[in-house]
Amino acid sequence: MDTVRLGIVGLGNMGKAHLANIRAGKVPGLRVTALCESHGTIPPLQDGETAFTDVSNMIDSGLIDAILICTPHFSHTTIGIEALTKGLHVLVEKPISVHKADCERLIAAHTDKSKIFAAMFNMRTSPTFKKVKDLIDSGELGEIRRVHWEVTNWFRTNYYYATGGWRGTWKGEGGGVLMNQCPHNLDLFQWMFGMPQRIHGFCQFGRYHQVEVEDNVTAVFGYDSGMTATFITSTGEAPGANRLEITGEQGRVTVTDGTKIHFQRNRQPMSKFCMEAEAAFAMPESWHMEIPLAEGGGQHVEILQNFTNAILKGEKLLSPAEEGIYSVELANAILLSTWQSKPIDLPMSAADYENLLIEKGEKSTFQKTKVVAKATDDDFAKSFR
C-alpha cells in the first residue's frame, strides 16, 4: 500500500477543514475516497469520492482503509468500535468518548494492533508545549511544586449554543466547556504533568449562558508527590486569558497565550536555598530568559500526516487514541466531584459517572428559550465544534 484511502464521517466545521487540507495535497499518502453525513449536506464530490448517508454502509463499502470520525461526541464510541471491529484504521476527533466507561469500551475494541488507532490531539504538535514538556522531562525545572493554568479564552456567546439542539445539554453533548473546548488543554495537562491522584472540582452550570452544562470551572488537583495544581476555565469571560504557570525547584516557567515562554531560573534550587541561607529575607538569585521556539507546528495536518505515516511506514504515533481516556477522566472527575461535593480519587469509578450522566440526560427538563430556538438544527447540525 502506498496510499491510504480515507473516509470522513461528519462534515461539520472540523470535517470540512480536514477534507480541505487533504484535497489540497497537504497530506502526502492520504486520499479521501468516501464522505458520510447523515444530517447536513456533503460538499460537492471530486473524482474518486463516494457519498454516504449511513456510516455502516461506508465502513462496509470496501472503499476505505481508514476512517476519520468528526461527529458529535457520543457517536465517537459507537462508530469507532464498529470501524475497529471491521478492520479499519481509525482517527477520532477529540474527545475520544464522552465518559470513561465508553473510553474503555472503545479502547477494548482495538484488539488488532496492526490497525492504527489515533486521536486528533493536534496541540501536541505546538512548539510551545513541546518545549515545556522537554523542560519538564529533561529535569531543567527540577521537581515540580505547583502548576496553575487559567484558560478562559474560550468565550462563547449564547447564540453559539443555539447552533444545534445537541449543544449545551447533557443528553446531546455530555458536558460543556470541559467536554467541548478543553479536551486539548486537559490532554496537554496530563501529557506534561501526569495524572493526579485526587481531584476537587467546583463547577457552575449555566452561569453565563442558557445551558444546563458547565460553563465555569475551577478544579484543584493533588499529587502524591506533594505537587498541587489548579485548572480554571470558562466560556463566559471576556476578555479571557490563557496563562500557564509552573513552579519548580529551579524556577518558574510562564506560558502566555500558548505562544510565549518566560523562564525565571534560580541559580540554586529553592528548597536548598531555603534550608541553607543565613538571612531571614533572602531570595535565591534568578535570571530572566525568553525561551526560543521553533517555527510553526503542523497542528491538524501534522496529526493527519503522522496517522498516514504510521499506517504506511510504521511511524510512532504522536497521539495514540488510548491516551485519550486521560483527558476524559479528568473532565469526568471534575464534574463528579462537583455533583458529590467531595474530592474524587483517581482512578475514578467509570460506572458511577456513567450512571449519573445517564440519569441527568433522562431526567433533564431543560428547554431552550424562544431566542435560542431561532437557530434550527437543520441549519447548524453539521457544525460539530
Core attributes:
14 helices; 385 residues; alpha/beta; disordered C terminus; Rossmann fold; 9-stranded mixed beta sheet; globular; Dihydrodipicolinate Reductase, domain 2
Describe the structure concisely:
By secondary structure, the chain is α/β, with parallel strands linked by helices. The protein contains 14 helices and 15 strands. It is 34% helix and 22% strand.
Mean pLDDT rating: 93
Order of strands, widest sheet: 14-13-12-11-7-10-9-8-15
What profile does the largest beta sheet have?
A: 9 strands, mixed
What is the molecular shape? globular
Please tell me how large the radius of gyration is. Answer: 22 Å
CATH superfamily of the largest domain: Dihydrodipicolinate Reductase, domain 2
User: Briefly, what CATH class of the largest domain?
Assistant: Alpha Beta
The separation of the N and C termini measures 33 Å
Q: Return the structural class.
A: alpha/beta
Low-confidence stretches: 370-385
- The assembly state of the depicted protein chains is single chain
Description:
- The protein has 385 residues and is α/β, with parallel strands linked by helices.
- It folds into two domains: 141 residues, Rossmann fold, CATH 3.40.50.720; 219 residues, Dihydrodipicolinate Reductase, domain 2.
- Helices cover 34% and strands 22% of the residues.
- It contains 14 helices and 15 strands.
- Strands 14-13-12-11-7-10-9-8-15 form a nine-stranded mixed sheet.
- A hairpin with a 2-residue loop joins β11 and β12.
- α3 packs parallel to α4.
- The two termini are 33 Å apart.
- The C terminus is likely disordered.
